[in-house]
Amino acid sequence: MNLPVSAETIMLFAAVILVLGIIGVIIRKNIIFMLLSVEIMLNAAGLAFIVAGAKWAQPDGQIMFIFILAMAAAEVSIGLALILQVYHQHKSLNINNLREMNG
Amino acid sequence: MSNLIWLIPAFPLLGFLILFLFGMNLQKTIIAIIGAGSICLSAIITLLIGFNFLSNPPENHVITQTLWTWFEIGNFKPQISFLLDPLSLVFIFVITFIGALIHIYSAGFMADDKDYSRFFASMNLFVFSMLMLVLADNLLLLYLGWEGVGLCSYLLIGFWYENPQNGYAARKAFIMTRVGDTAMAIALFLIFYQFGTLLIPEILNNAQQIFQSGDQKITLIAFLLLAGGIGKSAQIPLQNWLPDAMAGPSPVSALIHAATMVTAGVYLIARMHVLFELAPLAQMTVAIIGAATLLIAGFSAFTQYDIKRVLAYSTISQIGYMFLALGLGAWTAAIFHFMIHAFFKALLFLAAGAIIESLHHEHNMFKMGGLKNKMPVIFWTFLIASGSLAALPLVSSGFYSKDLILWYAWSADKGNPPLYFVALLGAFLTAAYTCRMMLVTFWGDSKTEISHMPGKLMTIPLLVLAFFSLFAGFIELPHNFGHLTLFSDFLNPVLPETVLGNESKPEWIFQLFAAVATFAGIYLSYLLYYQNKKIISRFKQSAIANGVYQLWFSGWGFDSLYNAVFVKPFTYLSHINKNDFIDKIYSGISGFTVKLYRSLSYTQNGSIRWYALGILVGAIIILTLQIVL
Amino acid sequence: MILIWLIGILMFGGLLAWLIGRWNRAFPRWISLYTVSAGFLAVISFWIDHYPFAFRSNNWLEQFHTEWIPIFGISFHLAIDGLSLLMLSLTFFLGILAVLTSWTDVKYQVGFYHFNLLWILAGICGVFMAMDLFLFYFFWEIMLIPMYFLIGIWGSENRVYAAYKFFIFTQASGLIMFLAILGLYFIHGQNNGSYTFNYFELIGTYIPAKIQTILMFGFMIAFVVKLPIVPFHSWLPDAHSEAPTAGSLILAGLLLKTGAYGILRFVIPLFPMAAKEYGPLFMLLGVVGIIYGAVLAYSQSDLKRLVAYTSVSHMGFVMLGIFAFNTLAFQGVIMQLLTHAVSTGALFILAGMIKERIHTRNLDQMGGLWTKMPRMGAMAMIFAMASLGLPGLGNFIAEFLILLGAFKANIWLTVVATLGLIFSAVYSLRIMKRVFLGSKINHQKIKDLNWREMTIMGSLAILIIWLGFFPQVIFKTAEVSINKLQYYLSVKKMDKTPQTSSLKTKHETISIKKKPIKNVRK
Questions:
Q1: Is the dihedral of CA A32, A36, A37, A38 positive or negative?
Q2: Cys-Cys link to B234, which of B135, B239, C293, C307 (CB 3.0-4.6 A)?
Q3: How would DSSP label each residue in A42-75?
């Protein structure tokens, strides 16, 4: 199967997105942005699956992507609900202030 | 008649039980009747059995009575059973007869004490244990009595427990004798595995078949038994508990620490004489220990000022004579001296007790003085007993018993001149300190007021004992005049005759020497303490004499030696480890765990970013490993 | 059937006491008193019925067997012989005393307290009867947890620490034992094809020497911690000193005995070769325990701690005796288990009574108590003498036999152990001296023992004297159990020749005459 772009390029692209997501998770202060960054990472993973599926002409990659999609939806809804609660409790979304759960 | 043996210890036991259980609710007269009465009953039965024994001696001169089997495991089957032979008969006679007199005396002596019933209960228990000791037909039962008398000695030394000093003295006595007891326990183990039994007659009968003379094992057994005897009989090196034991009431000192318990060692060695004869080394040690003890205690006695301590050291010294006799193989002489000693030493203690009681509990004899005319009964009885102790020639029974030992020290097979001269020196010292005690206590000026005179309950036992101190010696007269051997003939079925050496000198020479030693001792004290008191004060000025005096006074420093070598290191070790260093190891482990979790919990800082970084780093490490490997 | 009843009545009584304790404080006491007394009477009458004839045959006196989890080969199998019977009698006897001593001692949560007390007893009974290793472990844990509560809730100031320490020591060692049990289970399964926890079948298992050693140490660690033997003893002083009086009594009198019982019942029959090989080591540990415990006891200023260290010393004798492997020593050990329970239990009760009166356990604040409490003083004297091994009291017989037996096995160790007799005199007399003798410290209004306390102390005193003069009943009762031990030791000795080492091949297991399970009553 011929792709317009080579699989390696797209994989590299997915890796870049993943790294961007990781950087986002680590450097952002606001939880919402951190959540967004996590989503970006998920999408990077999804992209990688799709490409891999396309490369070997297997449906598994797309199945996995749909799975990730569903999971991301669930995760975002729960995550946002939690963020809402956190905001109610602490009147802040700054991650540096939210570190009560320490040992 | 013979099946009544069990009654002899049963009465004191019964008396003890009654007093122990109900003593607190009884009147003093009833307590005294139960306490003294039980021993009197025992004494009567002993006399009956004794007469029976003498008039028609049983086969082999042994009566045994078995009450029940104590326990039975395999071939180890100790029984609660009694063995009555001439040796134990002498001992039970002394124990019950003198015991009864002392109990009667105590009824008067302790009349004002609030713990009247406790006193009699303990005394009865003591008599019971002592009877078990001498009547036992196996060593385990003997050990029961052996430890039992130790307990009673502890209880009675510490009888006036409110004074901490008495408690210490009691504890010291118990623990020091326990050291000997432990050695004896090991001896029992050895005997059991060598002989397969602890039954005394079997051991004695089989010893010669199993062992050759001087065998290592039998020597070891004999030494261990000797150690037991040393502990109980206050011989070197376990002698220094006895002077402190004088903290107990005087009747206790008379009964336990003069007449009976402290001679248990003599009994043990005499009882096991076959083993000692098979172990010449051990037997020689017995003689040497006896000789050393009699000398050392004699010197100490000469320097004491507490009248009871003088008597205590004198007891140690006299038991030294008995040990010497045992070591010489003069078995009957040792037992004879034991009996005579029991009479006069009990009398001395009782009389001293009466004096102390009358003089407001004054123990220091230099504060007594001038009692000769004020307390005539005490004076005369004390004089008779002192004469016996000093072995006044011909008139005192002490002379006959001690002269026998002195003579054997030279002429017995195992005797030798050094032992003889030590014994002779001991006789000189005995006379000296006895005379000193008499002079200081009864002559001179009165220094303390007499509060009250002893009553009849107290004086009658004194008179009876005085009679025996005077005349008991005549049942065994020296070979050169009279040659009466009632006592040794009586004992000979149990104890062999002494083997005499080859060279024999006329006996009268030794008697002369002994007499000279006695009179020299008396004269020395007369000189120092009556005629010319300045000599002593002059002595005290010289440093050497003073040092020697202090050494003798402190009983040759054994106390401080043991303190430094055993007591201090033990308490020190015990106290530095009070909190148990092993526990520290465990608390160390738990402390380490706590530290570890504390340091790990720092990573749990609550920052999501930190965790995310952690995941990242972890992932990278794993990936790198994957790639690299 | 009586066996299951013994456990059942205790468990049921405990639950009942707990429930009723919610409404009334006095009832739980009576309930537990009746429960334990009923059990005691049952055991004693059983004993009297069977004495002495049943104790001469090799059969087990009584069995109870039913499936529990058959798929794993676990059964509910109880059986008793003379040894178990002695231990059971002791359990119920001390149980009664424990209830009586806590009569006024326990002031809050009375119902739950008695629940715990009775369940500990139930667990101990189970341990003494279980003939299935899984069941044994089950009861081993049952007696542990209520004890944890007993110390942790009704103890004195430092109770929580002590309770944790007790729990961790015994639990950790118990788990190691469980691993060893599983090891044995699998080895037996691989050898014979049948997986079972049944004691009688496991006894016959052939175990290669190396594995035998490992498994034995797995068992030993649990028993040695329980016993306790230096250096695993350090939970004991804390647990004893912080526990309530009845707790100390049960700890000293019964829990420690389960360790010795375990060695006698399991270690020696299951691993005779390994036990023989390491016997001298354990004897040495015993001797170290004797001396170490005695020396430490001397320096303690807390009365209960002092008595606790004397326990360490006395249990050293047990260890010494067990691994001497001869009849005299075994009989002495069993005697020592009984007499130590009585004498040390009595000393703990005394410490409790003193604490109830003058509110301290510190020896420095005592002294001269004899003047005010002569009865207590006399009782204390008896038990101090018992603890130093005075002839005429049971402890002497025990210690003498142990030393006599051990002397045959190892002379020098025994000589050192005999020195323990001197040290025991030192610490016992120190108790008397510091507490009762000396001049009186002014304590207002302290009363001598009352009738309840006299009953407790009197019964203990009579028992210890009785054991001292008529120990034959005990020896006869235990005789068959000891003969069996000797049998196991001798059989395996003969088959010491190495067999093929692979585990998977079926071995001819050493043919031990399996006792036919007669009298299985359901």
A1: positive
A2: B239
A3: HHHHHHHHHHHHHHHT-SHHHHHHHHHHHHHHHH
Per-residue pLDDT of chain A (103 residues; tens, 9 = 90+): 566 788 889 999 999 999 999 999 888 888 899 899 999 999 999 999 999 998 888 899 899 999 999 999 999 999 999 999 989 988 888 888 877 777 6
Judge: B167–C437 Cβ closer than 8 Å, yes or no.
yes
Segment C471-518, tens digit of pLDDT: 998 998 888 888 888 888 887 544 444 444 333 333 334 444 444 444
8 A C-beta contact, residue C485 and residue C334: no
Centroid of chain to Cα B170: 13
Q: Is C469 in Cβ contact with B70 (below 8 Å)?
A: yes
Encoding tokens for residue B74? 């395999």
Of C227, C288, C291, C212, nearest to C261 by C-alpha is: C227
Closest partner CB to B609 (pick from A26, A101, A103) = A26
d(CA B221, CA B537): 50
Average the pLDDT over B573-584 and give the result.
84
Among B residues 136-195, those touching chain C with beta carbons less than 8 Å apart: 140, 143-144, 146-148, 151, 154-155, 158, 161-164, 167-168, 170-171, 174-175, 178-179, 181-182, 185-186, 188-190, 192-193
Q: With CA atoms as reference, report the closest residue to B131 among B38, B56, B21.
A: B38
- Provide the 10 A C-beta neighbour count for residue A71: 11
What torsion do the CA atoms of C376, C379, C384, C386 make, to the nearest 10 degrees? -170
CA distance B229 to B323: 10
User: Which residue, C267, C249, C424, is CA-closest to C353?
Assistant: C249
Residue length, chain A?
A: 103
DSSP letter, residue B248: S
More confident residue, C32 or B532: C32
Q: Which residues contact C497 (CB under 8 A, 6 or more apart)?
A: none
Note whether C401 contacts B73, CB cutoff 8 Å. yes
Given an 8 Å threshold on Cβ–Cβ distance, is B162 in contact with C327? Answer: no
pTM across the whole model: 0.87
Cis peptide bond N-terminal to B280, omega within 30: no
In sequence order, what are the residues at sequence separation of 6 or more whose Cβ sits closer than 8 angstroms to the Cβ of residue C103? C29, C452
Shortest Cα distance from B502 to chain C (angstroms)? 43
Count of all residues that appear for chain B in the document = 629
Distance CA B311, CA B348 (A): 8
Q: What is the pLDDT, as a whole number, of residue A2?
A: 62
| Distance, CA of C447 to CA of C303 (rounded, Å) | 20
Each residue's pLDDT tens digit, B522-542: 888 888 877 777 777 777 778
- Residue B153: which of B141, B163, B166 has the closest Cα? B166
Q: Is C397 exposed, middle or buried (0-12, 13-18, 19+ CB in 10 A)?
A: buried
Using CA atoms, how far apart are residues C274 and C210, in angstroms rounded to an integer? 8
pLDDT at position B221 over 60: yes
Average pLDDT on B8-36 reads 88
- ω before C70 within 30° of 0 (cis)? no
Tokens of residue C300, six digits: 């303690």
Put simply, the chain C residues between 451 and 510 with a CB less than 8 A from any chain B CB are 469-472, 475
Answer yes or no: are the C-beta atoms of C429 and B174 closer than 8 Å. Answer: yes
Report ipTM for this prediction. 0.90
Interface residue B571 vs chain C (CB under 8 A): yes
- Per-residue pLDDT at B40: 92
Which residue is closest to A97 within chain B, CA to CA? B607
Give the tens place of pLDDT for each residue, C5-17.
889 999 999 999 9
B397-411 and B307-327 helices, crossing angle to 10°: 40
